[in-house]
Amino acid sequence: MNDTHEGSSGTAMSYQDAPTRTVTADQVTFAYRELGPRSGIPVIFLTHLAAVLDNWDPRVVDGIAAKHRVITFDNRGVGASTGSTPKTIEKMADDAVTFIRALGLDQVDILGFSMGGMIAQVIAQNEPQLVRRLILAGTGPAGGKGIKNVTRISHLDTLRALLTLQDPKQYLFFTRTANGRRAGKEFLARLKERTQHRDKAISPSSYLSQLKAIHRWGLQAPADMSRIHQPVLVANGESDRMVPSENTLDLAARLPRGELVPLYPDAGHGGIFQFHDAFVASALTFLKAHPDA
Predict the structure, then answer these.
(1) pTM score, two decimals?
(2) Three-state SS for 118?
(3) How is the chain split into domains, by residue range?
(4) How far are the Cα atoms of 93, 176, 272 from residue 153, in angstroms, in the given order?
(5) What DSSP state is assigned to residue 131?
(6) In terms of pLDDT, which residue wins out, 164 or 290?
């Protein structure tokens, strides 16, 4: 195992300035960033389709890192991490566990957004002693309604974005109302706040592998959510086109210890970014309320 970083060795005060570090395990060099207090159970962030380190909303990262150690990372084959991206959510979960273990961690909390929320569900079931509690946002269970359509929606909205010279996330993550358009522009502006030592963009082959993994997840038989015994906070916008919002309600109902954040109004897949202040407050309350889950 090795551990290197850019910049100073001190604890970063904001995600914008957090150095990119690396750790090697199972012949993969994982790129990651961390900030926040060094004590306590860390919160591992698992990100969405096509995302790299720079795609996390700094308001969400900084908000949670104000009270907790936060670690974001590129999974195998993504961004600055080496290796080939798997074509199943289950294998992505194995790789995420490899990364967590490589940091010497034996218990973590997980915040999984979209595809990351799918990965988080597998980790919680396969490694129950590793995960203390979960926050699942903009995601759904295996076999969830409409998840198999993510590939088609992603392709269509990417084409729309190209034709209108916009970022695809403006369409994929936000509603087309005035509020949604404004929230999307503000979110995309926040993603550009980091100007130095930015991550590598995802490669086309890795993106296609992720799409295949999500499609397979959507075609699976419904998962047995009773196997997830940890406390789980579930959040989403009320108008999610990528992973239909009813999947969020389904998760909250089927998880033995599920807790639903009321769906954010006039918000889509990126509801936790549009309502980042409210989401961070809910997440911090949830993390504090379950110290010995």
Answers:
(1) 0.94
(2) helix
(3) 3-289
(4) 24, 15, 20
(5) E
(6) 164
